[in-house]
Amino acid sequence: IQAHGCEKEYSFQLGPFFSTTMNIQIWSEFSEEVSRLSGCKIQLVAAPSYENYLDQIILKKHDLYLAPDDYGPAMIKRGLSAVLHTSIEITGYIVSRFDIKKNKQAFTGTRLITPSPYTRLHLEAKDWLAKHKLTDAVTLTFSSSHDASIMALLNKKAETTAVIGSIYNCLLYTSPSPR
Question: What element of type H or E holds 114?
């Protein structure tokens, strides 16, 4: 079935939740399938920052947006509506070089890196620190994306990170490459 109005290219705005490379890897198959089924050309557009991503949504610069469910109420107030909603919840993990449960002292004075403060994972990490009375024990910082956070841990630039389940599961089932 050919969709009407396909004389122009439609832009699909991706948030900076992952690096540009990972975003394209994740969403290219989806956009190619939409293009194939509709007959419309789809261009993936990556936002360089969370601030830019939110600005683009508010200004309605693109035709389709990828946004976490948390953004839903704010988007509805701005005249936008969900077209596709996944049934899978995002799971978050805190991964550390230390056994924090057994040795809180080793965790003291270290850095916990999360994705941007605009992510739910960052807020959940803050809650976790407060719940375990560790808020003042560590420096909470953030990176540019989910995959940048785990790369900081893997490259020994952070001792602890908050990571989403899809990336965590990839680490579990992927063998490290020999160096």
Answer: strand 111-114
To the nearest whole number, what is the mean pLDDT of the chain? Answer: 78
Q: Residue 171 is inside which H or E element, if any?
A: helix 165-173
| pTM score of the predicted model | 0.56
Amino acid identity of residue 81, one-letter, is S
- Give the pLDDT confidence of 11-55 residue by residue, as tens digits: 888 877 777 777 777 778 888 888 888 888 888 888 887 788 888
Which sign, positive or negative, has the C-alpha torsion 48, 54, 57, 63?
Answer: positive
In three-state secondary structure terms, 28 is helix
Residue 66 has pLDDT above 80, yes or no: no
Residue of higher predicted confidence among 160 and 179: 160
Judge contact between 38 and 45, C-beta under 8 A. Answer: no
Point out which residues pair with 41 in neighbouring strands. Answer: 9
* Residues 145 and 15: beta-carbon distance below 8 Å: no
CB 24 within 8 A of CB 46: yes
